[in-house]
Each structure stands twice: as C-alpha cells, then as structure tokens.
Amino acid sequence: MSETSHRGVTTGGPIPDPMPVGGARDIADVPAVEIVSTAALHLMSAAAVNLGLAEDLPRHRDLDEARTLIEALAGLVVSGAPRLGHHHAAPLRDGLRTLQLAFREASDIPDAPGEGPGERLTGPVSPTRGGH
After folding, report:
1. CB atoms within 10 A of CB 100
2. Sign of the C-alpha dihedral, residues 70, 72, 73, 75?
3. Percent of the chain that is helix, strand, coil (3-state, to 5)
4. CA 114 to CA 132: how far, in whole Å?
5. d(CA 74, CA 55)
6. Cα angle for residues 1, 95, 27 (degrees, 5° grid)
7. In the predicted model, what is the mean pLDDT of residues 21-42?
8. Quick one: residue 14, left, alpha or beta (phi over 0 = left, psi -120 to 50 = alpha)?
9. pLDDT higher for 89 or 17?
10. Alpha carbon 27 to chain centroid distance?
C-alpha cells in the first residue's frame, strides 16, 4: 500500500527513516543523503540475507536475488556517490564491495572478472584490489 506525502507525491510506501518523537516526518523534510543511504542499507541487508549471511537465516541462499540486489545497489552507489560526498559514500562503497566479494565466494560457478554483480559499474573486484 503506497502512501501519499508532500504535494500528493506517491512514495510507494513509508520511508523507513527514524521518526521524531510524536509522529512521522514529511518526505520534504528528509535530506536526500538520508533517503539514498536508507535505500542503500535496505538493498545491502536484503542482499546479505540472500547470500546466506544473516545470522537468523544462515541456510537461506538465493544468488539470483542477491545478484539483482547488488546490481541495484551498485547503480545507486555509483550514481549517487558524487553528490553524497566522501563521508557518506565511502561506507556505501565498502559495503557494496564486501557484498560483491561475498557473492564471488558463494557462487559455485564464478563470473569472469568484471562480470560479477555490479562490476560493470564498479570495475572488477578482488580481495586484494587496492589493499582493501
């Protein structure tokens, strides 16, 4: 069920940011960096679950779903990073890279370098690239 907020814009659902005591926040009052970061965290969490990394669902694994989520995360991070600034973008890039490496580890049939989820946007990832 979608919600309508500021000026009748449909948001597709409630924005999952911290609410002030006493009520919901108006979407117009939420900074873009907070919305982008929240969306990225949701994509990261869902990808981690589908990679079998969730403590409460360690046997759950759906690499097709994980690939889709990591691809979407890569698009968001790569396109949003220049506007977010280093302070906000660096942890998102690190999280993305960690998920890309976890995907490589979880996959029985490895993708060619540069063909893993999100790598067309980020470039190939490897455990030793750039000392990360």
Report:
1. 23
2. positive
3. 55, 0, 40
4. 17
5. 24
6. 35
7. 89
8. beta
9. 89
10. 20
Joined together, the tokens standing for residue 121 give 């946007």
Q: Which amino acid is at 49?
A: V
CB atoms within 10 A of CB 3: 13
pLDDT of amino acid 1: 41
For the entire predicted model, the pTM comes to: 0.78
Find where tokens 């060619």 sit: 112
Give the C-alpha distances (Å, rounded to integers) separating 49 from 7, 9, 43, 86, 102.
36, 31, 10, 27, 11
Listed in sequence order, the residues at least 6 apart from 58 whose beta carbon sits closer than 8 Å to its beta carbon are 52
Place of tokens 């889709």: 68
